[in-house]
Fold these 4 entries.
Entry 1:
Amino acid sequence: MLGSSSAEKGSPLSSRSVAASQAIREQIDGARERLDVMNPYLTDRDIIDRIVAAARRGVPVRVVVSKTSNNSQATAALKHRYPDMLDAGVEVWELPDTVVNAKVVVADDVVSFGTVNLDAWALYRNSEIMMIARSAETAALIEERLFEPDVARSSPGEPRSGSHERFEGWFWNKLARLL
C-alpha cells in the first residue's frame, strides 16, 4: 500500500509503504514495454515530462483523459501540453460523454490504482492512497477491461487551435501547481 506522505523511503518494488508520488514516478521511469495512464486531472509538469521521456525512449505510451472535464482549468493546462506529448509519440485519447475517474497507471506488468490524481493537490498536499500490483495477469486484465474498451470509444486528443484557447492553456499550465 502506498500513501502520499509516508515516513518510509525506498522503491515501490522493495518496500511495503512509500510516498505515492514517488512510486508513480518510479513506475513511469521504469516502463520499458508499455505505459498506459488514465487519470481525470493530469496537470503535474514533472509527471507529464516523465511520460514524454518514456515515449522518447521508445516506450509505447497511451494517456486516456476526459474530452470534457469537470475542471476546465485542468483540461486547459493539460491540452497545453498535448503538443509535447504528441511530438514525443504519446497517444492521447479523449473519452467522450463521461468524466474519467479512474486513477490507473500500467507500466509493463506493474499496475498502480487508487485515489491519486496526477495534479499538485493529490501529489503534494492531499492524503491519497494507492496500491501497486506486480502481476502480468492483473496488467492484462486492466488492459482488457479498462484501457482497450475506453480507447476504442475515444477520439485522438488534439491541441487547442484558437489563440484564445492557446493563451488559456498557457495561463493554466503556468498555474498548474495551484490546480
Entry 2:
Amino acid sequence: MSQPLPVEFKHVTKRFGDSQPVLSDITLSAYPYEFVSIIGPSGCGKSTLLRLIAGLTSLSEGQLTVFGHPTTQEAGDLSFVFQEPTLLPWLTVRRNIEVMLRLRHTPAALRRDRSHQMLELVGLADFADSYPRQLSGGQKMRVSLARALTLQPSLLLLDEPFGALDEMTRDRLNEELLAIHKRQKWTAFFVTHSVAEAVFLSDRVIVLAANPGRIVHEIPIDLPGPRTAGTRHSSAYLKLVADVSRLLRSAESLATPPAV
C-alpha cells in the first residue's frame, strides 16, 4: 500500500467569520522530501496556509490531511519556524533549543544529546552557553531552526524565517538550510516574499493571488544540485527568477479589490 502524502489539500477554503475567504478552493499536494515555497502578494493567505497545515487554525470547507491524518493542534510529526526567533531571553542557547523537548518530557540525557547534535548542525556549538542578547539576527534564526529540528520532524513549516535579515546573511542561511534538508530529508513548506529565495531553495514554487487567496501558478524548479553560491550566477537560475517574477506580477494584477 502506498504511503500517505505529507500534505494534501482538497478544495480547501478558509474564512474568518462571515468575511470573504482568505483562501479559496486550495488543492495542493506535497511529496516526500519535497521543498515547496509559497509566494504571493501581501494578504493572499500564505501564512494562513501554513497555520492550516499545523492545525493552528481550522479550515472552513474541504479536506486537509498531514501524513494521511486530519490536521489537529496535536499534530506530532511537524515543526514550525516563525518569522521571529521567539527565544526566551533568560535561557542559554542550549536551553532554548531544548524547550520543545522539555515540554514533551524527554529525558535529560536525550535532550542534551539532541541539542548538541543540533548545535553542531547549525554551526553554533561554540555558543551553547550564550544568551540570545549576545547573538546576531542570523544566529538567533539558527537557534530557532535548531529548536524546531530537535523534534526530528518529517515536515517543516517555515514562515518567512529570514525575511528580516540582510541579503548576505539570508543567502548564507539558505545554503545552510538546503544542506540540512539534504542530510535530514524532511518535507518543507516555506513562505517568502523573495522570488530569488524561493527559486534557490525549492523543488516547486506555488504562486497565490489575493482576495481571495488562490493558487494561480505552480512552477517546477529544475536546477541541479548541490545548489551553492555559484548557482545564483547561473543562466538557468537567473531565467527562473525572471520567469517566476513575471508570474508573480501577473498574480498581483489578478487580485480582486476587497469588498467595502
Entry 3:
Amino acid sequence: MNEIVVLSGKGGTGKTSITASLAVLAGNEAVIADCDVDAANMHLLLNPDFATTIEFYSGELAVINQEQCTRCRKCEDACRFNAIVYLNKKMQVMPIDCEGCGYCEKVCSPRVITMQERKSGNVFISNTKAGSKMVHARLDIGAENSGKLVARVKNEAKSLAVAGNKLFIIIDGAPGIGCPVVSSLAGANYVVLVTEPTMSGLHDLKRICTMIRKFRIKAGCIINKWDLNEEKTTEIKQFLHDQQIEHLADIPYDISFTKAMTEGKTIVEIQSPNREILDRIWNDIKSQLQN
C-alpha cells in the first residue's frame, strides 16, 4: 500500500480538482482521504454518501456547575482569553474563546468548574461514485487541533485500505505548510505538488519543497495553467530541476475545469483534452510506486 499526498503551497492552484480526478482514475484501487479538514470540498466532486459519521473529540472545555456556583467571578478575572463572562446573572463559558488551559478550574474556590473533553468535529466514511471508499471530515466552527483530525482521517483511511487490500491511499492535503500539512505528510510515500505560474505560486512552492526535504519524501510537480505565464513556467521548471523534483506535467488553462465543477464532476469525466494528461500522470505515479 502506498500513500500519495497531493499538496500546494497556496490555495487556488487546482489541487483538489486534480486530486479528485486522480481518485476517479484510480477507482476501487484506492481509498481516498480528504485531509483539508478546515475547508473540505472534495465531496463536491466525488458525491460521497456519508454512510458513517464518527464524532471527533479533542482538547478540553471549561464547564461550570451553575447550581453550586457562587458567582465570585474569580474565574472571569483569571481567564486571559476572556472566555468566561457574567451574563444573565450567571457565569458562562464562551466555547469559541475557551482554550482549555484549565486555569479557571484551579482558581475556583467552590470547585464547581471541571474540564471536559470537547467535540471538535466529525469524521465521515463514505462510498463514492468512483467505486472507492472515502474518509473525510469537518472541523467545527472555531475548533482547533486540525492536525489531530487529519491524523484521525489518515488512520481511518489506512484501516480501510488494509482491510480492503487496496494498493493506494490518495490524500488531498491542505494548502500551505501548517499543522494539517505536516500531519498529512507523516508516512507518505510520494508527494504530488500542484502549482501555478505566478509569483506567489513559485514562492509558496519553494516553502513547501523545503518542508518535503525534511521528510525525505520523493516528489513530483504539476504546473497547472502553465500557458498563462510562460516566463514564470520556465522559472518554475528551472527550480524543479535544481531541486531534483520530477516535473510530472504541464496542464494548460482549460475552462472545462470550471464547467466540470459546476456539474459536480471531475475533468476526467467530461470531454476534455486534459483527461489524457491526467491519465498519463496517474500511470506515471503508479509505475514509480509499484517499481
Entry 4:
Amino acid sequence: MSRPKPTDQLTLQTAVFSGDPAGADCNDNPQSCNRYGTTFSFSGGALWMGELQYAINQDKKSAGLPGFYKLGGWYATTDFADQHYGLNGAGMVVSLADPTAARPLYHRGNGGIYGVADQMVWRSDTSSLNLFMRGGFAPSDRNLVSFYMDGGAGIKGLLPGRADDVLTLGFAYAKISNDAAALDQDTLIFNGPPRPIRDEEMIFEVSYQAQIAPWWTVQPDLQYIVHPGGNVPDPNNPNATLGNALVTGVRSTIKF
C-alpha cells in the first residue's frame, strides 16, 4: 500500500490486494477458509484500488469550516459472470432464463468509481452541522448493483448541555442493475408469474449517539427499508414480494 502526500491538503492512496484472499480451493465462507488472514493466494487475479483525498481547514485554528473529499476507483482483473446472458450448448449467447443456457457468459475484469464528501456547513461554540454524501458506479452487465448513493446530516450538540451527542439523519439508495432486472423479465416470460422485477432498495435512518461518559457511548438507531433486497420474492410466500421493513437497534461502545 502506498500513501504519498503531495501537499498538506492532498493525499493519494493506492493499494493492490489478492482477488481471492481465501484461496482457490475455498468452497465455504471465506472467513472460515482464511480464519487467521495468513493465506497468501495468487488465484483470482488482483484487486487494484486508488483514492485521491482532499482535506480543507483540518487545523483546529483554521477560520474556515472543515471538509473532507475523496475520489477513487477500483479494478479487479479476474473474470465476472454476466447478470443477464449465458451460452447454450452450441456456444450461442442466450438469456440465462432460457432453458438452453448451459453456462454463464463471462467478462474479463470489473471496475468502478466512487466519491465521498463530508463538509461542516455551520458551527457555534457548542454545536455544529455536517452534511455528507457518498456515491459510486459499476458496470451493469457484471454487477448486481450498478449505482449506490447515501447521504444525510449530522448535528452535534443539538440539546443543551449535551455538546458531544450527535443526531444523524440519513438515507441510502441502491439500484439493481438493468441487466439483472432484464433477467427477471426474461424469467417471467419463460416461467410465467409470479416473478417480481428487481429494481431498487432504499433506507431511511435516524440515530442518536449519546456520550454517557468520556469512554462510553450509547447509540439507538431506527431504520425503515423500502424494497428489501431490491424487490425480491418473499421466502414465506412466493406469490408476494418481501415487504418493507422497520429495524430498530442499540449500539454501545466502550473505550479502554
